[in-house]
Write the structure tokens for this entry.
Amino acid sequence: MFRAILLEKGDAGFSVRVTEIDEARLPDIPEGGVLVRPEYSTLNFKDGLALTNKSPVVRNWPMVPGIDGAGVVLESAHPAWRAGDRFVHDGWGVGESHWGCLAQRARLKGDWLVPMPPSMTARQAMSIGTAGYTAMLCVMALERHGVKAGDGEILVTGATGGVGSVAVALLSRLGHRVTAATGKSSEADYLRSLGAAAVIDRAELTAPGKPLQKERWAAVVDAVGSQTLVNALAQVRYGGAVAACGLAQGFDLPGTVMPFILRGVALLGVDSVMAPMALRKQAWARLSTDLDPLLLETMITEISLDEVIAASARLMAGQVRGRIVVRID
């Protein structure tokens, strides 16, 4: 038996609880399966949607949520993994269509796991989690486009969230001048402590604006989408780029092609869920060197498995700053 968060949906409606589950109920993986013991997990936006049933994230019922996990391999039928190996897991539909890591046990595909960087603990890896890993993918996408330190200001939207907080810290440490957009004026000191040179009110970006606006940003990391993304595109300098990875404001894009055809702006889509393994390994290697672990510690709130359900409601209400790390045992 192991403890886990279980989501169920039936004639009685939706329910969520922390309970004990028989290990025999773990999903079967015919080839390359790995039984793991997550030591830490996280609470991401997608987990919050599942735990509060605010969006049809879960595709199979019942479901154990938790798209992230870090810990130790217990048993392996995969040639790349042995008992005792340390792993990090992000994405791959876990917590949506396959039981996840907000549990003391999980059975995952070996092809989904990344070796934990030697310099990291499971707690540090989950302090980063999908949010931080996504932020690193955004930074790498901008770098591939040719964005360099000294090119100009970089805007980070949704800056007090998990992706935004790590993006601010990464970009500032890499030598960029970062402007953070947030709706929480009380968090300006927090964002400056992460390295933001300036903080603006997200209200400057959330309302409809002109298709082309004053050129302000060399690049943008956007975790918000919708009108915020449209305004960010309209303000990017000629030849600049926007790395888009989120939809906190919405999944629509109510804009025009003008930034693309008149200023040569590039919109770079960033996906963390199905990213290829080579890119994942590169991102985690960069995170182990480019992110200050002491600064990372200032971004996190650690909770127990029993506190996850209440924390998910606060997350969806916009009352969470930075990263929530879940201690499994």
